[in-house]
Specification:
The complex is a heterodimer of chains A (363) and B (58). Chain A is mostly beta strands and 363 residues long. Chain A contains three helices and 20 strands. Classes of the chains: A mainly beta (363), B alpha+beta (58).
Chain lengths: 363, 58
């Protein structure tokens, strides 16, 4: 067997330049999709399929978003088996001035303190990602500072239609404006898919500056202009420092379980019938103060970012397919760790119930 | 979240506010805790600041 020399110097160099133990972007490989693997008829913003990836859109066509399974192509060859795909189903070939279409990743301020933003030692940032788009031409990636309303944008080019391409985008350091060190959204990475003139009529701002909308997405092609258009990403990584496609550290693949747990800080579901379609759980009930009220004291799988909004609360008698549901469904005493879910059963005859709910503490 | 209406929900059996029941424009109900870090709670505060009124609990 031929032996290759191991370049220990470069290995150490990479370790030093990558001070974070885990990837800063959670679910950059699009492996986790707790809500759904496919959502159709999208015209408004929100979280749809792949966890942590938000769609922000205003009057820019209708879309289907899917978590795609990859079986071929250069992204698959690089180790990625899932992607987030946007498929245009109703075109908008002429975006209005205030219209936009973005896929965004929102950061807690406390997770980006290592960038030392707003100090003399501020760090440069590099974003690497795989993209496959029908629409070729100029696209914009933006790094936005919510704390200080500052931003910087860089362009990249999709060269070949419907072909996986790897892109590396560099952002300069910002010695102005520290990010608030808390659990709120203080920064966002914006993949533009379309931008009306309000966001594109100026000069692309490639150095950090106070945000001027007209300078944010200059030159962005309109991915909404044909129902033939698809737009797909995976393998998104954010690195501290300046790299090229040749020097960027390898994507940090996490185990499915580790990635899922990190996503559950922001959202999890054990819904019976909700859009997530997950399997319901059987739980005992514990009546309090009125035997007709059935309570589940729910402990979350991980501490959540904030006390979550609880949706799709459901209690069913006997079996998950039962149509005999409890009424007056509600949640109470919600914290970042636990919640009391309850409903009312007027005949009070059952001894156990299926229950489900969705829990969201998204940014 | 597109808010249609918001209603107070008291702790069961008590006259103390526990959370808000937010109905969105798709008539889906979300139970929003009184946590300033919760973005839906922040949206409710903004919705009220915009001149809307939260309904009293049943």
């Amino acid at each position: 067997m031929a032996l290759s020399k191991i370049d220990v110097g470069n290995m150490l160099d990479d370790e030093i330049r990558r001070p974070n133990a885990k990837p800063l972007i959670i679910n950059g490989n699009c492996a986790i999709s707790q809500r759904s693997t496919s959502v159709t008829g999208i015209t408004g913003g929100g979280y749809n399929t792949c966890d942590r990836w938000n769609l922000s859109i205003s009057s820019a066509g209708t879309w289907t978003q899917t978590q795609e399974s990859l079986t071929s192509g250069d992204a698959h060859a690089d180790g990625f088996s899932k992607s987030l795909k946007m498929d245009n189903t109703t075109a908008d070939g002429s975006l209005g001035s205030g219209d936009y279409n973005q896929i965004t990743y929102k950061f807690e301020g406390q997770d980006l303190q290592l960038l030392k933003k707003g100090t003399a030692n501020a760090e440069k940032v590099t974003v690497g990602f795989w993209i496959k788009a029908t629409k070729t031409g100029t696209n914009i990636l933006e790094f936005y500072d919510n704390t200080n309303t500052r931003q910087v944008s860089q362009s990249y080019t999709v060269s070949s239609a419907d072909t996986w391409e790897y892109k590396v985008v560099n952002f300069p350091a910002d010695t102005t404006g520290a990010l608030t060190n808390d659990n709120a959204q203080q920064s966002v990475l914006v993949f533009w898919l379309g931008a009306g003139s309000n966001f594109s009529s100026g000069t692309l701002n490639t150095s950090w500056a106070s945000s001027t909308n007209a300078n944010r997405a200059v030159g962005q092609v309109n991915n909404s202009d044909s129902t033939s258009n698809n737009w797909e990403i995976t393998g998104v990584q954010l690195e501290v420092g300046e790299y090229t496609s040749a020097t960027i550290p390898p994507f940090q693949h996490e185990s499915y379980g580790d990635s899922l747990a990190r996503c559950q800080r922001y959202y999890f579901s054990d819904a019976l019938y909700s859009s997530g379609g997950n399997t319901g759980l059987v739980e005992a009930f514990a009546p309090t103060n009125d035997n007709n009220y059935k309570h589940i004291f729910k402990q979350f799988p991980v501490p959540m970012r904030a006390a979550p909004t609880i949706s799709n609360i459901d209690f069913r008698e006997d079996t998950a397919s039962s149509t005999d549901a409890l009424s007056q469904l509600s949640a109470d005493y919600v914290t970042t760790l636990t919640a009391d879910l309850y409903g009312r059963d007027d005949d009070a005859s059952e001894s156990s119930y299926y229950h489900g709910a969705d829990f969201s503490a998204e940014l | 979240m597109d808010i249609k209406l918001v209603k107070k929900v008291n702790h069961l059996g008590k006259d103390i506010l526990g959370c808000y029941a937010l109905t969105d424009t798709n008539d889906k109900i979300h139970h929003v805790p009184l946590d300033e870090d919760n973005t839906d709670y922040q949206e409710i505060l903004q919705w009220v600041a915009d001149g809307n009124t939260i309904q009293e609990a049943d």
